[in-house]
Every structure is written in structure tokens, then in C-alpha cells.
């Protein structure tokens, strides 16, 4: 099995390392003994039944929830240090755009936070305008969120996540509320962005095909308590096209993951 | 991308002429209803020979409005001034206290019950108390007008400042935003639609506050004129004053609505 904890490896080579991480909410154990090493530049997806702690895992890595025990590090730093250094960015299921700001102003938001306090903020080589172009929204810089479709809003959110040049991108079912055609389109675009920027991506989804299509590895979580059941390598070469989904290899993976899900 | 091309509407767009006609009709119907009521009123008063001091005909009220215009204006400006001052102070206090409430749970727990209690005292009951405290001058009326604006704005502003989705707050945390950045960049702008609904209520109630204040003790102002014309059976003047009072409310309401259109563009 790939990605098992390897004490010899230096933490700096990894975008995120979890060792026996446990998350508890009161007496409820949300995540039990999670250990994994996410290599830099990788694209992993997290799959599992609802309530298995998929989102909690992203929130653990992004310093939104604390570990009750065990260790979590991001690029060799504690999650708090990594957050202060803007090493990671988060994309939520809802685009969470500020409705009074234009698309461009929303992308610029992270650059404004901390500027008055003279905090050193990493800035992407790409300007906010170029990032909007990267997600295919050139010409819509001045549109307000309500003037954009759901898919467009989510693309603004992705551009906003990239504006501080994060090394790790955490995505919590970002396309879960979109129709299938838009989702396919955005999946392809995300793979392209991943290839162009070299950012590490940890992507939570409840869709088996999406998990297989995007991920180099799929982390399969189980419930009661939330735990890591298996890490499945997806040996489909990049770049992947939508038609990969019609191949026998692809359905072999989806069938295997579906059996795993049902067996839980 | 999804669905930005053309409209899928089944009903055909009405032509320009028809649309103008429909808009005209939209104004004509309420205007017609108002004129109708005035006509019935006029005819009723004349047919049943209702004495002028019980119910003056609209034409009498109109004549008084013109003839007594200088007198009405002399009393309009003090009320206008008291209403505006009360509006500004009452809402300012409500906004600042709402900010304090959202900032500190302890402050909210300590002072919210007091705010509710003050709000439950009828304004007519508290007005004499305030006139006793502040005297018969301007201050008492401004305080009463401010008091009547205060509570709806406080409640709405607190709600508005808290109307930020948990995910947006998580975004702020991931960006390591400071408390003041969260306030200025997220909480305050998202409270504006709530604030403006409250300001629209305040725009009409502040006039009521000022007039009630003048009832209790004043030499000038629309409230004083209402009392004076009632006791002297000058009913036409009373009605004219009432119209002018509601005109003041409508004007303040319209000003707030225009300000809202300019500020809340999303």
C-alpha cells in the first residue's frame, strides 16, 4: 500500500504528513489514527460515505480543527505556521464569494487581508486578472457574483485560492452542487491548472467517477469512527481526457471503489 | 458555460407600446383609487352637510394648505429638524451598540434585556418623563425620536452583522484575518441590506417620535399645531397638518430608499 507513514522521509518533501492523527468532537471520534504522507505535486482524492470525516480531514490539515492526538504537518511546519505563511488555500463547496465584490475584487481579497498589518504575503506570479483568465473567466472581471452561474462562481473561488501561490490546495466537494456537464468541464480545467501550476491538491468528493478521474490516488475512508481504509493507486496516465471514463480500466477502478464503499 | 445564452421564456416579450401602456396603468390604478376616495369624501361631506369642525371636505383642507402655508412651514421645520436629529442619533447609537453586541457576548447578555425593556415602554408613557428630564426644548424631542428609531435598527444590525456564513468565516480564518479585517471587509458590508431595512422603518417612526414629543410640551412643530388646531376646532388646519406630517415621513423614506439603491448594488 502506498503512502503509509515512513519515519525516514523528511517532512519537507511532503505537502502534508499525518501521523496517527485523531480528531474528536466532545466524546465523538470523527477521525481515528490517520497516517499518510502526501507528496508535493500530487493530486489525491478523498472518498467515503457521508459522515466519515472527509471534510474533517481537510479541516484538520488547514488548521480549522485541532488534532486531539497525533501529529499533522504541512510542508514541514505546524498547521498554524503553514496557515500564517499561506502555504495552503481552501475551496469550499459553496463558492463563498463576497456578493458586493466583483469577480476580480473577490480574487484580490486574500492580498488585502493582512496588508495593513504589514504581513508578508506570498503572491502568485500570475496577476489576479491572469488567474481569472486561467480559469476561463476573461472578460467577466467586473461581474458581480449574482451575475455569474454556479460554475463560474466556483471558478472565481479557485482563482482566489491560487492568488497567494499556495503549495497545497484543499478542496471540499467544490463541484458537488453543479450539474454534470459543468462538473466535467471544471474537472478537466482543474487537471489543467494542476499541470500548469504544479500545486498539490487534496480533493474531497462523494462521486466515485470524479475521485477516479481526478486522483492519482484515492483515499478511501470508512465510518464509525472515521478512519483510513485503503489508499488506491489510480494508474491512468496524465493528461486525462473525459473519454478515459469509458475505458474498461476506468470502470474497473470505479467498480472496485463501489464495492469497498458498500462493504463498509 | 451553463445557461447564459438567450432566455428560454415561453411568453413573448410585449412590444414597447404595450409595455408603456401597462406601466401607465400601473400608476393610474392607485392614483385613480386615491382620487375616488377623495371624491366620495367630498360628495359625502357635502350631501350629509357634515359640519366643517367634525370632518372638513378635501377642498377645504386643500384651501387651508395653501392659505396657511407660511404657518404650516413655520411648524414644519422644527419637526423636520427634530426628526432628522433623532434619526441620526438613534441609528448611530443602535449601530454602535450592535457592533459592541457582536463583538462581545458579555455586553450583549448584559444590555440586551435592558434594550428590550426600554422598547416595551410605550413611547407615549416615556415622552412626559423625557420632557421632565430634558425640558420643553429641542433635546427632549430629539431623544424621543431617537428612542423610537433605536430598537428596530439595533435588532436588524445585530442580525446583519451575524449574517455571515460559517464557511465565509472559515475562509477568513484560513487567510488569518484579524478581527477588524473580518469586521470591515466581511461583517459590515454584509449587514448593509439589513441596516437599510431598519433605516426605512426608522425614517417613518422618527417623525412619529418628534410629533409625540411635541404633544407633551412644545410651542412650535407639527405636533404642537395638531394639538392647537384640535382644541380650537380648526379641523381643516388639523387635516392639513396631518397631511404635511405624513409628507415628511414619505420624503425621509424616499431619501433612505435612494441611498439604499446607491449603496447596496448587489
Strand content of chain A: 15-25%
What would you call the shape of chain A? Answer: globular
Based on the coordinates given, report the CATH architecture of the largest domain in chain B: Orthogonal Bundle
Cα end-to-end separation of chain A: 19 Å
Which structural class do you get from the secondary structure elements of chain A?
alpha/beta
CATH superfamily of the largest domain in chain B: MetI-like
How many domain units of chain B? Answer: 2
Continuous helix count of chain B: 10
**Would you count the extended β strands of chain B for me?**
0
Number of domains of chain A: 2
Round the Cα radius of gyration of chain B to an integer and report it.
24 Å
Overview of the molecule:
The complex is a heterodimer of chains A (about 260) and B (about 270). Chain A is an alpha/beta fold and about 260 residues long. Chain A folds into two domains: about 1-85 and about 170-265, 3-Layer(aba) Sandwich (Rossmann fold), CATH 3.40.50; about 95-165, no CATH class. Chain A is built from eight helices and ten strands. Chain A starts with 13 loop residues before the first strand and ends with a helix. With about 270 residues, chain B is mainly alpha-helical. Chain B has two domains: about 15-50; about 60-265, MetI-like (MetI-like fold, Orthogonal Bundle), CATH 1.10.3720. In chain B, helix 5 (about 125-135) packs across helix 6. Chain B starts with 15 loop residues before the first helix and ends with a helix. At the A-B interface, strand 6, helix 3, helix 5 and helix 6 of A face helix 7 and helix 8 of B.
Amino acid at each position: 500500500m502506498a503512502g503509509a507513514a515512513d519515519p525516514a522521509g523528511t517532512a519537507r518533501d511532503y505537502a502534508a504528513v499525518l501521523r496517527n492523527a485523531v480528531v474528536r468532537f466532545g466524546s465523538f471520534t470523527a477521525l481515528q489514527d490517520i497516517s499518510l504522507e502526501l507528496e508535493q505535486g500530487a493530486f489525491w482524492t478523498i472518498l467515503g460515505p457521508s459522515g466519515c470525516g472527509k471534510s474533517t480531514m481537510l479541516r484538520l490539515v488547514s488548521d480549522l480543527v485541532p488534532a486531539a492526538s497525533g501529529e499533522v504537518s504541512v510542508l514541514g511546519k505546524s498547521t498554524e505556521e503553514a496557515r500564517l505563511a499561506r502555504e495552503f488555500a481552501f475551496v469550499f463547496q459553496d463558492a463563498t464569494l463576497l456578493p458586493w465584490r466583483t469577480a476580480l475584487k473577490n480574487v484580490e481579497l486574500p492580498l488585502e487581508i493582512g496588508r495593513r498589518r504589514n504581513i508578508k504575503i506570498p503572491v502568485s506570479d500570475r496577476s489576479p486578472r491572469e488567474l481569472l483568465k486561467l480559469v476561463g473567466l476573461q472578460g467577466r472581471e467586473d461581474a458581480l457574483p449574482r451575475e455569474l452561474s454556479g460554475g463560474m462562481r466556483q471558478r472565481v473561488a479557485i482563482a482566489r485560492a491560487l492568488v497567494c501561490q499556495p503549495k497545497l490546495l484543499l478542496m471540499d466537494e467544490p463541484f458537488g452542487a453543479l450539474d454534470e456537464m459543468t462538473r466535467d468541464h471544471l474537472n478537466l480545467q482543474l487537471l489543467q491548472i494542476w499541470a500548469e501550476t504544479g500545486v498539490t491538491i487534496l480533493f474531497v468528493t462523494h462521486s466515485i467517477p470524479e475521485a477516479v478521474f481526478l486522483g492519482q490516488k484515492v483515499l478511501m475512508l470508512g465510518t464509525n469512527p472515521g478512519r483510513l481504509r485503503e489508499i488506491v493507486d489510480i494508474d491512468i496516465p496524465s493528461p486525462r481526457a473525459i473519454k478515459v471514463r469509458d475505458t474498461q480500466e476506468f470502470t474497473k477502478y470505479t467498480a472496485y471503489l463501489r464495492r469497498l464503499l458498500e462493504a463498509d | 458555460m451553463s445557461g447564459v445564452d438567450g432566455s428560454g421564456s415561453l411568453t413573448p416579450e410585449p412590444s414597447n407600446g404595450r409595455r408603456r401602456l401597462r406601466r401607465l396603468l400601473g400608476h393610474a390604478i392607485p392614483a385613480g383609487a386615491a382620487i375616488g376616495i377623495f371624491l366620495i369624501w367630498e360628495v359625502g361631506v357635502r350631501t350629509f352637510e357634515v359640519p366643517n369642525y367634525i370632518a372638513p371636505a378635501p377642498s377645504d383642507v386643500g384651501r387651508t394648505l395653501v392659505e396657511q402655508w407660511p404657518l404650516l412651514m413655520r411648524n414644519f421645520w422644527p419637526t423636520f429638524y427634530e426628526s432628522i436629529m433623532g434619526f441620526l442619533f438613534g441609528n448611530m447609537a443602535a449601530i454602535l451598540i450592535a457592533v459592541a453586541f457582536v463583538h462581545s457576548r458579555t455586553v450583549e447578555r448584559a444590555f440586551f434585556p435592558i434594550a428590550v425593556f426600554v422598547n416595551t415602554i410605550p413611547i407615549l408613557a416615556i415622552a412626559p418623563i423625557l420632557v421632565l428630564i430634558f425640558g420643553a426644548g429641542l433635546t427632549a424631542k430629539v431623544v424621543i425620536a431617537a428612542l423610537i428609531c433605536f430598537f428596530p435598527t439595533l435588532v436588524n444590525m445585530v442580525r446583519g452583522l451575524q449574517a455571515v456564513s460559517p464557511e465565509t468565516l472559515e475562509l477568513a480564518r484560513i487567510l488569518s484575518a484579524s478581527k477588524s479585517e473580518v469586521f470591515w471587509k466581511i461583517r459590515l458590508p454584509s449587514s448593509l441590506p439589513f441596516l437599510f431595512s431598519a433605516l426605512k422603518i426608522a425614517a417613518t417612526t422618527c417623525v412619529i417620535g418628534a410629533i409625540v414629543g411635541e404633544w407633551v410640551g412644545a410651542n412650535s412643530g407639527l405636533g404642537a399645531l395638531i394639538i392647537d388646531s384640535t382644541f380650537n376646532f380648526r379641523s381643516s388646519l388639523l387635516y392639513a397638518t396631518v397631511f404635511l406630517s405624513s409628507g415628511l415621513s414619505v420624503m425621509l423614506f424616499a431619501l433612505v430608499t435612494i441611498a439604499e439603491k446607491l449603496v447596496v448594488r448587489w
